[in-house]
Design a protein that fits this description.
8 helices, 4-stranded antiparallel β-sheet, 60% helix, Methane Monooxygenase Hydroxylase, Chain G, domain 1, alpha+beta, disordered C terminus, Alpha-Beta Plaits, two-stranded antiparallel sheet
């Protein structure tokens, strides 16, 4: 069973990711990012319930209760952040039409966000991010990975990608198509001509 400390750490990481995803959902008109925010919001609500339950079981005195109250307030704040992020993501789900200034920002920025699922025949399967050099090869940076009901936040070069993983990545518009094709097994790493790729990304 996860400790109160473990739950608080996960809530903090999840709420930070939700803020990033929700603003990206609006800026890049990404319903994929918005849907992930909805999924995370449901999970963070469950975590907040769990931390309340464990706190009640752990309190053995008035002094214990006072100390745990501070932790509960932190958990409530994390849930409030998550709820606000969901409100922002809901705008993308509902087809919110951004103010013209958003369009200007989008036109001046080539960055986008995508969610891709790694298929069984993908070259990404069972390789580390360090082995793949995705940022170099595709112009996309993996910022989080959802594996079944678990999340990997801030994956590094030692993080292994497995079939069925849902990758959340940021990068160039042209790179997002390359990453999707790689994840779906429609192209292999050997198919990527680096000279042509760099030219496309430039």
């Amino acid at each position: 069973m996860a400790t109160i400390k473990d739950i608080l750490i996960e809530m903090k990481d999840m709420s930070e990711l939700m803020v990033d995803l929700s603003y990206s959902a609006i800026l890049f008109n990404s319903k994929d990012a918005a849907e992930e925010v909805i999924t995370l919001e449901n999970k963070i609500n469950r975590l907040n319930y769990e931390i309340k339950k464990q706190s009640m079981l752990a309190a053995r005195s008035v002094e214990d209760a006072e100390k745990l109250t501070v932790l509960l307030e932190i958990a409530e704040a994390a849930e409030s952040i998550a709820n606000s992020a969901k409100d922002i993501a809901d705008l993308a789900i509902k087809g919110f039409k951004p103010h013209p200034v958003f369009k200007m920002v989008m036109e001046e920025s080539e960055e986008t966000m995508v969610r891709v699922t790694v298929h069984e025949n993908s070259d990404l399967d069972s390789k580390t991010l360090g082995d793949l050099f995705l940022a170099t090869r595709t112009g996309m940076r993996v910022i989080s990975i959802r594996r079944d009901e678990s999340w990997i936040y801030g994956p590094d070069k030692n993080t292994i990608i497995l079939k069925g993983d849902n990758l959340i990545a940021k990068g160039t518009v042209s790179g997002s198509s390359i990453l999707k094709d790689l994840a779906h097994g429609e192209i292999t790493l050997d198919d990527l001509n680096e000279d042509e790729l760099y030219e496309d990304l430039d």
